[in-house]
Amino acid sequence: MGKSEIKYFAAIDVGSFELELGIYEIAGKSGIKRIDYVKHTIAIGSDTYKFGKISYEMIDELCNILSDFKKIMHSYKVDAYKAYATSAMREASNNMQVLDQIKVRAGIDISIISNSEQRFINYMSIDSKGELFEKYIKSGTAIADVGFGSMQLTLYDNGAIQSTQNLSLGVLRLREMVEEIDNINEKKHNVLTELIDNDLNTFKKIYLKNKKVKTIIGIGEPLMYVFRYMDHESSDMIIDYERFIKLFEKIRGKSVEEIENILGVSKNHAKMILPSVLIFQRIFDLFNAKEIWMPGTLLIDGIAAEYAKKTGIISVGHNFEEDIIAASKNLAKRYRGNSKHTTAVEKNALLIFDAIKEVSGLTERDRLLVQIAAILHNIGKFINMKNSDTATYNIISSGEIIGISHDERMLMAEISNIDNEENIYNKRDIRLAKLSAILQMANALDRSHKQKIKNFTLKLDENKLKLEVNYMGDLSLEILSFNSHRDFFREIFGIEFILKQIRTF
């Protein structure tokens, strides 16, 4: 394989407790290989979680470290890089100033990613480990992605996401919460247990119900300290309940100094060990799981995997787009969406999108977004029949779908208000207008919720989109709704949408 076939890529994670840099070789034949790794402990989360902002001294240190990262990247002559910041930067009130200082002083552009994007990238890092991921998610698996700021708990079954929730159970956040308690280790342990159990029990009652969790997939930087202690050689490992509990009992009730000596880690890292291990011990007990798989991956590994897939260098692996759709359908099911109507609107929206794709200026990502918006467009009726659009907007905007960014989620919330064309005009967002116009027409074709329009053909001929429907019955309601939105569709796309009913005797 020639050198020209290899891409050199750098991934940077500006986390709550550490800065990490990974240098990767990426090639279609050999896959993704991390060839260098540098990390620096800097607890910016301590500033954010205590004071709500990042101090000047912390910003100065950040810029210096990232300047060194830039030099390392330059020495490898990387073809591209991505730098992401997570919860500590996301929650800091002065994050815009911090990012500007880093760009000016260190020459690195950092993107703040939403929680759902961060977890999605972490799941891509697990997928990069191979077939074991696909094996486990086929039945009763929970991914516990434990970070310094929060934890994402996601249930997989039948190869797809069933539910996911973000919990404020990050190890640094938990540590800060018990820091002021009297220096009695058992008391701190009990308080941590109560904090963790409160959220996990709620999650179990709402989302787990009769589902059984056989395996936990444990990821996140805090877990890596335990990982390195238990097995220094393996790239990943599977640990049964008994082995994990032995480690737990070994450090339970121990001081930071004792944990430091037992595990051979620094004092800063030793402080994070007990909350991290305790979280997994409680998950084991509450879910009655049998084993934990620790793939040993980092966020930077997921960033590299994301780049490799987006650029088309590597195309194999789990279909995460199907996860996004499955999660959306589970959310709709929770709010008792009209499944037959939703399925019809989803189908109609995709057919309309595909028919005008070449002239619409929209992307494949937009296709996914309008599909999700169709799935979720009427969930607000469970909350409020009269003001269902507003209720739908509130559910989508305040919820979370793994793999969908905050901006995309807000866009879908706006699209869900499908009858308010004046509001769409006022937004002056052509992408919103286009996706809304498609969803309006898709919904109009099943306005009666009776799926009358099933057998039809859809064809774009120059600037006319012709819909021919084979139906013997009355389509008055569908035609009325269709006509009320067709002018908006024409204004947005410059395409005349024509509906013709054919009665075959």
Write up what this structure looks like.
- By secondary structure, the chain is of the alpha/beta class.
- It contains 21 helices and 14 strands.
- The strands form 3 sheets. It has a 6-stranded mixed β-sheet with strand order 8-7-6-9-11-10, sandwiched between helices. It has a 5-stranded mixed β-sheet with strand order 3-2-1-4-5, with helices on both faces.
- Helix 2 crosses helix 4, helix 15 packs antiparallel against helix 16 and helix 17 packs antiparallel against helix 18.
What is the topology, as strand order, of the major beta sheet?
8-7-6-9-11-10
Structural class: alpha/beta
* Number of DSSP helical runs: 21
* Number of distinct beta strands: 14
Rg measurement, Å: 25 Å
- Main sheet properties: 6 strands, mixed
- Intertermini distance: 66 Å
Low-confidence stretches: none
Strand content: 15-25%
Shape: globular
Average residue-wise pLDDT: 86
Helix proportion range: 40-55%
